[in-house]
Design a protein that fits this description.
Layout: H1 3-12, E1 15-19, H2 23-44, H3 48-71, H4 85-92, H5 108-130, H6 148-181, H7 188-193, E2 195-199, H8 210-228
């Protein structure tokens, strides 16, 4: 056995594959990535009908993620990763170190990124629901509740805040690359497989029952449907 193999065996000793992200979180994460990409492309190419449909899909995903952040598996719950200013500053002070322990789930700074992006996505979608198209053919389903002038202003805000969202996403991607290159921590892999290597005895993720997911899916679907018809029952 070579010295390199010996070091690898020593490093792997006492470690195991730990579940860190459940399937609903992973599906919602990558679905949101795809949905935002479709929204960007359809908006850029003036495919407003499909832009609207992708907006409904994103609204459903965000509602589900917010719901799952309250009643979902342990690593998905906001209460388990959103931290106060002191915890955030303490974690930020260790960014320059490569030997910081791996956080089981989102770290304190990552939590800011998640909450900020979720808030921006929800804000952009809500603005789009009230936005008025120039020709009035593909206005948002709630545009009837505002005047033409207000709707056009909201359409401009919709575009402006989507641009801000893209910059925040770019910052998020830069952080992922920083962790991969400098801190040698792969954050993408666990979001695909749901697992990461960790010390034996580390806290395992507590998985929420699927019936909770089903309830949230029904409620989120009902809300998106009501929005799509402008609450005109």
């Amino acid at each position: 056995m070579t010295s390199t193999e010996s070091r690898m065996d020593a490093a792997l000793a006492g470690t195991a594959e730990l579940r860190v992200w459940d399937l609903p979180v992973r599906i919602m994460h990558w679905s949101l990535v795809i949905g935002i990409g479709i929204c960007w492309w359809t908006g850029l190419h003036n495919e407003l009908e499909y832009h609207l449909y992708s907006g409904y899909a994103i609204l459903w995903i965000v509602l589900m993620r917010l719901y799952w952040g309250l009643v979902g598996s342990s690593t998905a719950r906001f209460v388990n990763f959103v931290r106060g200013p002191k915890a955030i500053l303490d974690y930020a002070s260790t960014l320059h170190r490569r030997d910081t322990p791996h956080t089981h789930g989102h770290n304190a700074l990552g939590a800011i990124s998640i909450v900020l992006m979720m808030g921006l996505v929800l804000a952009v979608v809500i603005l789009g629901l009230f936005a008025v198209d120039v020709d009035g053919l593909h206005s948002g389903p709630l545009s009837g509740y505002v005047t033409f002038k207000q709707g056009r202003h909201l359409a401009h805000l919709h575009y402006y805040w989507f641009t801000i969202l893209l910059w925040v996403i770019a910052l998020h991607l830069a952080a992922v690359i920083f962790y991969f290159i400098y801190k040698r921590k792969n954050l993408i892999g666990p979001m695909i497989s749901g697992k990461r290597r960790g010390d034996v005895g580390d806290t395992e993720m507590k998985i929420a029952p699927l019936w909770r997911l089903a309830i949230g899916a029904v409620v989120a679907t009902a809300i998106v449907w009501a929005v799509s018809i402008g609450f005109y029952f």
